[in-house]
Amino acid sequence: MLQLEGISRTFGDRLVLEDVGFTVERGKLTGFVGGNGAGKTTTMRIVLGVLTPDSGTITLDGRPLGDQQRRGFGYMPEERGLYPKMPLLEQIAYLARLHGYEKRPATERARELLEKLGLGERLTDPVDDLSLGNQQRAQIAAALVHDPEVLILDEPFSGLDPMAVDVVLGVLSEHAARGVPVLFSSHQLDVVERLCDDVVVIAGGKIRASGEKEALRQRYAEPRYEITSAGDMGWLRTEPGVSVVEFDGGYALFDAEEATAQRVLRAALDAGPVHAFSPVRPRLAEIFRDIVRDEERHDDEPAAARTKETVR
Q1: Spatial distance between the Cα atoms of 149 and 71, rounded to a whole number of angstroms
Q2: Where are the alpha helices (DSSP H) in the chain?
């Protein structure tokens, strides 16, 4: 387990990270989400030792993280850093050799990985000749070729089409299944929601929420339900304790407490067949928007007002 505690960092007189703390569990894909300038890349660079925190600790399986452990990390920066004129297979094998592989095993490892990533027919092509999506896959191969103990990926799915996302996910999931902690940042909240196990939300240099994805959806869920019935649901508009959000004949989306929702279900069953009934969980994009909006509003309040709120 990779664990950050109390990480703070300033650039000049600007505080860019404040008391950042979260965990990346072994065997899980953890999505790290936040807007531009939220602190994602700075946090990742501190984990990698590129930047030094002003305060705080980072541990791996309970032991302080040092340079020796970091040599076993795999990192993909948001900016592409491969040699543009070097043939793809030769380049990835070269990176494996920098991590201690002998020439033949390095080439075999690079070839196997590139084929898994769908680049088997482009092995002799210079990186410059690849499409942007294939360059992204090549950059991912560079992060994975030495079979890293921890994976840190900055916007790994940027520029990938849905099929390529699935291919990359399969490769990352293989590493996670072997117990590798995988932390990846992304602006694509729909992709994060589909792929990750855990979520960390950062805004303004502070961690606003973190935890298991479904637990977060449950925590931030409003008492909202949807129902699809064979009959017209118009009567729902006058049902006590119900606020209808959407309505279309036999379909309704409504807010209500659980007991009221169960009463609605019984009434609908009395009226005819019910095809579907379920609580509605918020999407990650909605959770992110609400968290950031609430925290920004809280941060904008005068200190005295926040103190009063805390005392109450």
Answers
A1: 9
A2: 40-48, 67-70, 88-98, 103-116, 132-144, 162-177, 189-195, 213-219, 258-271, 284-300, 303-311
Q: Are 40 and 227 in contact (CB under 8 A)?
A: no
* Residue 114: closest CA among 141, 148, 77: 141
**Burial of residue 117, with CB atoms counted within 10 A of its CB: 0-12 exposed, 13-18 middle, 19 or more buried:** buried
Distance between CA atoms of 56 and 306, rounded to whole angstroms?
A: 26
The letter for the amino acid at 185 is S
d(CA 85, CA 138): 13
Strand order in the sheet with 55-60: 14-24, 2-11, 55-60, 63-64
How would you class 81 by CB atoms within 10 Å of its CB: exposed for 0-12, middle for 13-18, buried for 19 or more?
exposed
Q: Which two tokens stand for residue 104?
A: 């033949």
Q: How far is CA 193 from CA 3, 28, 71, 189, 213, in A?
A: 22, 13, 30, 6, 8
DSSP string for 75-106? EE-SS--S-TTSBHHHHHHHHHHHTT--HHHH
| pTM assigned to the model | 0.79
Write down the pLDDT at residue 221: 76
Helix (H) or strand (E) holding 279: strand 274-279
Per-residue pLDDT tens digits for 177-232:
999 999 999 888 888 888 899 999 998 899 998 999 888 888 877 889 999 999 88
* Residue of 175, 178, 179, 186 lying closest to 153 (CA atoms): 186
